[in-house]
Specification:
The chain has 23 helices and 13 strands. It is of the alpha/beta class.
Amino acid sequence: MIRPTAFTAERIAGVVSRLSADLSVRRALPEWGRVHVDRRLPFIVVYRRPDNRVDIGTERIVTGVASYVLASGSPSRREELRSLLRAVAEVMRERFGAFLIIEVWSEGGGVPERPRYRLVRRTNDAVEDTAEEIAAALAESRILGQPPQVESAVARKVAPDDMRMLFDGRELKAMGAELLGIAVNPVWRTEDDDVFPLLLRQVGRRFTTALDRGAYNFTLGHTTARPGHYHVLGRRAVLKAVWETDQELAAIGESFDPLLLVTPVNGEQAWVEFRRSRFQKPPRFRYRPLPVDPARLKHRLWNVRTDRVEDPTLMNLFRDTQRHIDRQLSLLNDRSRPDFLMTSLQLYGSVEPGLLALAERILREFPARQRKGSGARIGAAEFAALASAEIEGYREEAPGFGHMPEVRDDIYAGLMVSSGRVLIGREASIPSARADALIQHEIGTHVVTHHNGREQRFHLLAVGLPGYDELQEGLAVLAEYLVGGLNAERMRVLAARVIVVHALVDGAGFVEAFRLLTDRGFTQRAAFTITTRVYRGGGLTKDAMYLRGLVEILDYMAEGLDFDRLFLGKYGIKHIPVVDELLMRQVLSLPHVLPRYLERPDARERLEALRGGMNVIDLVKRSAAK
């Protein structure tokens, strides 16, 4: 960004021209600072940096909003700033009928103490309700473990003590504008100006929300615009730093598949050896060579400059993603080592008492049935043909959707999806009655969300946001139910996975966990497959997520929330408020494609029934009754 020596009338005219066309503006200002306006908005936040004292960090707490100016507080630059603000106000007043200027400054000691905000407005102004909304939003935030102190004052001067007001009452009236001041206690720094970066980011995020809520209040009460939510006034224009951060993190995340890399390549041989030992000796698993060096990739990961991202919502998301990828790399580094289980617990969690109780109840209420023949089954090639036909069906609506399935020798126990690719074990033998359910589990969920994530501007939604697995697997199991393929036997398998994960965390060895399942009526081969999934790599607790995710998605549906938007990419239940915010800000878009099974009348009927509330046990009983 080239910094001009003066912000001339010509430069201001350029700003006006872009805003009049509802285009974004981002320009450097002389000496220091910039103007950033996403689009035509009825407000702007101003920060003037003092020229007679150090004021570290204050500018960072205002850059999360969609319209702001950072400018030098030097008296010699005051008229330039005033001219710029007048020009912006004129465009916005013409569009909205009114305009709000919020000036922010710091005051008080820079030592961590109870956060304090002081809102200042002029006598007889029209922003008392806006000030009250901002004060309420700030009071709801908790910084340093306690609510802040929020004060309001009416004064003749609305400006920092060492600066003149930007505009007096007469000037504001002529501009059709209102002025509101917010003084902030800089708890993010010490008296020696050492900064606490995490605290600064926390304050900035809470402060951005308060400013957006205030702007929303002003917009509804004093302008002609009627946004549906304060998020609609949030940042929409995405800066180059955001794209670069997303692309770099996505590239790192896509460079390895932790699930594939901790899955044994000798599953069939391990089963044969385990059976020969009369199920007394735990199997020895072999794994693929790692295609990456975890230590080198971690170095690259933490060199990604997430601090360049001004948007507090996106910066927080990127930093969470860095931590998540770091743990995935630790998982690979710890493969077949004692630390693997601890890393797995950090990534996927353990088994909480309620989930364990549900798993035990499922096994009690749906005991193993005596088998009267295994029923019709299909092999890998036939299943691959069915999966290919399903993908071709999607391609009629979305050319380029997915990849054709691959039959491979190094995939044990059926099939999996890796980076949107369906991988089928060559020895796979799948019950014909389960084929459709598995296709909707893998393609109708995992491939669909991967495709939709690739269609978003943020590619991390294809790779997966932190904790996405739980919602993904919950959706995938629910897909089995919606197409009529979730039977009691399948639920027993999901419950057994929870039982074995709990046994693993409780210290049980492979053989002991295997016997837990055979004692509950599972065949030796089924018990081996389930136990292998959990004990691979050194102990992978991910398999408890299938049942947990199903419980969460049923709770979500009972609340009557939007089902379709869950397919716009790979994210977790905890990200739903963030996704909703980014949708309202038009940073994200609705899903490009939806699962094809939703076109089936019976699937839609089952889906609507879930909105009345249904638990996992009811789900299985309803499936059995159909």
